[in-house]
Amino acid sequence: MIAALLDLARTHAPLLSLSTLVIGAALAIAGAGPRLSWFIALAAALASAAFASDMALRLLTDGEIVLTIEGAALFPDGVGAFAGALLAGVAVLAVMAAGASLGDYERRAAPFALALLLLTAAGWIGALMARDLVGVLIAVETAWLASVGLVAMSAQRAALNGALRMLGAGGVGGAMFVLGAGLLHHGAGALDLPAIAAAHVERADAAALGAGLVLLGVALKAGVAPLHEWMGAVLGRVNAVGALAVGVLCAIGAIAVIVRLAAYLLPSLAFGEGVSIALAVLGGASVVIGSVQAVGSHNLRRMTGYAGIAQAGGVLLCVALASPAGYAAALVQLTAFAGAALALFGGAAAGGVQTLETLDGLGRRAPLAGAAIMAGAVSLMGAPLTLGFLGRWRLVEAGVGAGWWWAAGAVIFASLAGVFYGGRLIERLYFRRAGEVYAGARDVWRWAMAPMLAASIVVIGLGVAPAGLLAAADAAAAHIAGSVR
Amino acid sequence: MSAQFALLGALLAPVLQAAFVLSLQRPPGLRDMMHIGFALLTAAFAARLISAAANAEAARIVLAEPLPNVDLAFTVEPLGALVAATVAGLGAVHAVHAVGLVRATQEKAPARLMAFTALSVAATMAVAFSANLFTFFVAYQALTLCVFPLVAHRGDEEARRAGRTFLATLLTASMGLFLPAMIWTYAIAGALDFQPGGVLAGRVNTLTANILLVLFVLGLAMAAVPPLHRWLPAASRAPDPALVTIMGVAILPAGGVGLIKVAAFVFGPALSEARIAALGLIALSGVSMCAAALIALSRQDVRERLAYSCIAQSLAVAMGALVALPVGLFAAALQIVALACAATTLTMALGTTAAVTARRTAIDFVGLGRVMPWTFAGFALACASMVGMPPFSGAWAKLWLITASAGAGLVWAAVLVGVAAVLTFAHLGPLAANTLAGKAPTDAFKKPDGASILLAAPVILSAAATLWLLVLADPLASFLSPIWTPDS
Fold first, then answer.
1. Looking at the partner chain, which of B68, B141, B167 has a beta carbon nearest the beta carbon of A384?
2. Cα A119 to Cα A34, A88, A171, A250, distances in angstroms
3. Residue B450, by phi and psi: left (phi above 0), alpha (psi -120 to 50) or beta?
4. Between chain A and chain B, how many beta carbons pairs sit less than 8 Å apart?
5. Which residues on neighbouring strands pair with residue B130, listed in sequence order?
6. Residue B117 in contact with residue B102, Cβ under 8 Å?
7. What value does the mean pLDDT take over residues A228-244?
8. Which structural domain range is residue B348 located in?
9. What is the DSSP track for B179-200?
């Protein structure tokens, strides 16, 4: 009986990985108190991660999975399965970390915050599995509006300003996406993702413009430079849960969706080259602008956000190569980004850190939080034996293979900038004394350390022994390349 | 003891040393015993590896495969074994001196100082025994990060500024120059393994070889090739045990061994393809040697003077490695050993002097040799070695370097080496002579009992080491010959 139920669940894994999050969100709101809601949310996130991981494992090892009724709306491909599992795992850690910060909300508001966190994850996972552009749009907007709500729930009034900026940016992004999808349908005659690449394009200009607008619409939500004006206002003012939602879930989700959409748009003979150039320009700009802004930033969350923009730029450069090697490098880079962002945002939340000054001496007064932030920082720097190094190595390798030396230069530039901002973090953590205001201001020896420690271990562990990750990324890239052929 | 076990021991013993020193801070006697004991153990492992390299015993440790076809691996070869033995031997002497120094100065955080010194030795061992460019890069970064706390140890604004300069220069150069060169090499050769004959031999055109050589040499900022040498004068105000680590035991030897490994194991015969870059870098090194020795002459703080003097000496390693002849590689290897011995002696002597007399400037050193005869006898021997006076090790290194330069048709380079030696004499010779010949100060000591044996004996021991190349030069030539003799 149990085995039959498990088999049934595995058959519908794509649908269940989404629906458990949505149902979990509803149940979390119905929970009697913050703690019960948190347990429900965590259980839902764990169940979703289990389904997503199982689906990814089967898809990447067997090559395909049989879709039943959900096949009408969902189409899990290599990139979607890989990034979906990654995002589901990130959601588990984000919900765990959120448990320590529920006190930032009023008692009645906390379950809603958890529900919105789950909906954010569900939305992005949905976008990674949607079969057509309409499905992607609905899922992306769900995720975006949920994260806007989460930002607006922060106790600081200034966060409301950030939420409004997100709403405005998201509205523009949504409009661009709708317009782009319309143009793409007009030019290529298809909205179904697998069909777009193979479609006979009658109006190449309209299709190219549409593809560009679709990608820009999501890029705006990913905060890719120079479309990231909203990000500083949000990350500088939002509370810890909101920062995890925007800085980690939204950023990873949106970039992953771009990778997936690009993988379907790039093979098109009619407009693929144009898409590639646009992604390369956007990627290069993101690497440079994000790195420079991270160097100049004095707020840890903003700094992490800007460093994330640079990482996102690296992912776009990988994708722009339009090759399986590029897609695989993008997925490795995405995983590195997720690990570093979780370690940094999680460490900042656990240590009660916001500005760089509050980091002073954190390595002594909170060794675990300090270690997590350091692991995130060294990964962002691209230090060897971290996931960040592996991601950049794969990008440079793929870039050099394609003759894109300038992309390798951009990555080196990001690493050099990383030396400055990452080095500054480490110096403050371990070589400065805590100011009186901050010393012992917050109890940081809490179980909430678990998520960021897990992220730190992943950042270092996969940097030392990356064979499994590389194999999975290669399989995912080969799968999506095969899907669009 | 198998060579494999000795290799593991040489890499792990300093790490355990750091762990024990940190965990057994009280009583201080136990902490000090651990510090010295593990340093001696490291030296014993390194000595065993010399014998393994001499007998061509194979030993390889693979820790991980972080990239396709690229291992995080360590192996024993003659150059690495020689540098590791030198560093470990001097490290043991330095451990005794550090114990004396932290007691004499009542250092506030002695365990941290000792632990990071031990970790620096561990990272230097990893650099020396690295089996490929990737492992070298990892160990090099680890060394930078281990020495940074030593530079910034005092924690005041000056120390933090020095630490930032140190970290920024070394990390920026390695990430911005060395890393791209490594990736480029991987793209060309499909491998990063160090192998006699060079991985790039026959695979690289002239333009690429020239660019790669510049990236590698400047990326190895620990070798202090200008303009990436500023970290060394900046770090010269670090605590005395840190200075020994930077100039004698870890950083400069690591930079030197990196240069030789790149020249011999990455380029090999392909160095002839990079002739333009090599000549440019030799000229830069030669001129900078003279300039550094000249600047040293103008410095009154003996630590700063020594920092510039060490830059000049380190550049001799670069010249030897770039000459593209076996004799040049031999000269460079000898120069690493000579510099390590002399710089360790001098920095330890400065530490001893500062601890018992609180004197730091050249003018205040006059006559101190009369009240601290052992310390300043060692100081004088090390100065003579730095200058290149026979029969000290520096003389043989410079002799071979001049021979190599002349043999390669670069007479001007040989002349520059000679000029630098004269200028080194000018800034170290009178200083050493005045300490011994000047009138003894009446109020030399802060404390009436002067320097303890823990402070004086290590200086004498490492000064004696500057003599050992006198008898070992010939055996060393055959010991090191596999570096420039590709496997058939």
1. B141
2. 17, 12, 18, 11
3. left
4. 76
5. B74
6. no
7. 82
8. 3-484
9. HHHHHHHHHHHS--B--TT-SS
Mean pLDDT taken over chain B: 89
Residue B62 three-state SS: strand
Residue B141: its chain A contacts at CB < 8 A? 383-384
Q: Cβ distance B169 to B221 under 8 Å?
A: yes
| Residue B485 phi, psi (nearest 5) | -115, 105
Q: Nearest CA to CA, how far is A387 from chain B (Å)?
A: 10
Using CB atoms, pick whichever of A385, A397, A431 lies closest to residue B66: A385
How far is residue A285's CA from residue A111's CA, in Å, rounded to a whole number?
39
Query: pLDDT exceeding 70 applies to what percent of chain B?
Result: 98
Q: Which two tokens stand for residue B465?
A: 């080491």
CB-CB contact of B297 with B430 (8 Å)? no
Nearest Cα of chain B lies from the Cα of A50 at a distance, in angstroms, of: 27
How many domains does the structure of chain B reveal? 1
User: 3-class secondary structure for chain A?
Assistant: CHHHHHHHHHHCHHHHHHHHHHHHHHHHHHCCCHHHHHHHHHHHHHHHHHHHHHHHHHHHHHCCCCCCHHHHCECCCHHHHHHHHHHHHHHHHHHHHHHHHHHHCCCCCHHHHHHHHHHHHHHHHHHHHECEHHHHHHHHHHHHHHHHHHHHCCCCHHHHHHHHHHHHHHHHHHHHHHHHHHHHHHHHCCCEHHHHHHCCCCCHHHHHHHHHHHHHHHHHHHCCCCCCHHHHHHHCCCCHHHHHHHHHHHHHHHHHHHHHHHHHHCCCCCCHHHHHHHHHHHHHHHHHHHHHHHHHCCEHHHHHHHHHHHHHHHHHHHHHCCCHHHHHHHHHHHHHHHHHHHHHHHHHHHHCCCEHHHHCCHHHHCHHHHHHHHHHHHHHHCCCCCHHHHHHHHHHHHHHHCCCHHHHHHHHHHHHHHHHHHHHHHHHHHHCCCCCCCCCCCCCCCCCHHHHHHHHHHHHHHHHCCHHHHHHHHHHHHHHHHHCC
Does the beta-carbon distance from B184 to A397 stay under 8 Å?
A: no
**Residue A126: pLDDT over 70:** yes
> Which residue out of A431, A462, A470, A474 would a mutagenesis test of the B interface target, given it has the greatest number of B Cβ atoms within 10 Å?
A431
pLDDT of residue A447: 61
Residue A437 neighbours by CB distance under 10 Å:
8
**Residues belonging to chain B with any Cβ–Cβ distance to chain A shorter than 8 Å:** 63-68, 72, 134, 137-138, 141, 149, 152, 155, 160, 163-164, 167-168, 171-172, 175-176, 179-180, 183-184, 186-187
For residue A400, the chain B residues in CB contact (below 8 A) are 183-184, 187
In this predicted structure, the answer to whether residue A411 has a pLDDT above a threshold of 70 is yes
Choose among B64, B149, B187: nearest Cβ to A465: B64
Given an 8 Å threshold on Cβ–Cβ distance, is B183 in contact with A401? no
Do B391 and B467 touch, CB atoms closer than 8 A?
yes
Question: Average pLDDT in the B249-260 region?
Answer: 94
CA distance B119 to chain A (A): 17
Task: Give the tens place of pLDDT for each residue, B370-416.
Answer: 888 898 999 999 999 999 888 888 888 888 899 999 888 889 999 99
Q: What domain range is A424 assigned to?
A: 2-483
Rounded CA separation A40/A60 (Å): 30
Average per-residue pLDDT for chain A: 85
- Residues A306-333 have pLDDT tens digits of 988 998 999 999 899 888 888 998 999 9
H or E stretch including B480?
helix B469-484
Chain A interface, Cβ < 8 Å to B = 381-385, 389-390, 393, 396-397, 400-401, 408-409, 412, 415-416, 419-420, 423, 427, 430-433, 463-467, 470
